[in-house]
Amino acid sequence: MSTPAPQLNVSDLSVEKYHSFSDATMDTLLESLEELLDGLGNPSYEVEYHSGVLTLLLGDNGTYVINKQPPNKQIWLSSPFSGPKRYDYSPDTDSWVYSRDGRSMGDLLNTELSAALRKTVELGLEKVSEQVED
């Protein structure tokens, strides 16, 4: 028995649409996280965004790193709870989806952050195409 070849997702998304969708997602994510952390008032919590890399520091709850991957037209996420994942834009759901489990990045983050912060979290990462500024 041979090992199956790795599956590569080839995105039909144009480079321009990738950048507009991923930029809109990262901007929404940053804005939502800044608002969330301001409301919590915990000085050990912090969010930073530089050069396409968003870092969310949650003290004892660990660190998330979310970054754009233009060569693959993906957004990569590293979670202290669920590990690394690579998200592709799905036109069917208008969201960033992990191909191995079909779960959206927004759903994963809402669930994990709600559990970690003991507060309902809704980051608003659905309907990516509607977040793009013309």
Automatic annotation (TrEMBL):
SUPFAM superfamilies: Frataxin/Nqo15-like. Its main location: mitochondrion. It is found in: Mitochondrion. One of its GO terms (cellular component) is mitochondrion. GO terms for biological process: intracellular iron ion homeostasis; iron ion transport; iron-sulfur cluster assembly. PROSITE patterns: FRATAXIN_1 (PS01344), FRATAXIN_2 (PS50810). It holds the Pfam family Frataxin_Cyay. One of its GO terms (molecular function) is ferrous iron binding. It catalyses: 4 Fe(2+) + O2 + 4 H(+) = 4 Fe(3+) + 2 H2O. It is an enzyme of class 1 (oxidoreductase). The keyword Transmembrane helix does not apply. Keywords: Ion transport, Iron, Iron storage, Iron transport, Mitochondrion, Oxidoreductase, Transit peptide, Transport. It comes from the Eukaryota. Its EC number is 1.16.3.1. Belongs to the frataxin family. NCBIfam families: FeS_CyaY, mito_frataxin. PANTHER family: FRATAXIN, FRATAXIN, MITOCHONDRIAL. This is ferroxidase. It comes from Piloderma croceum (strain F 1598).
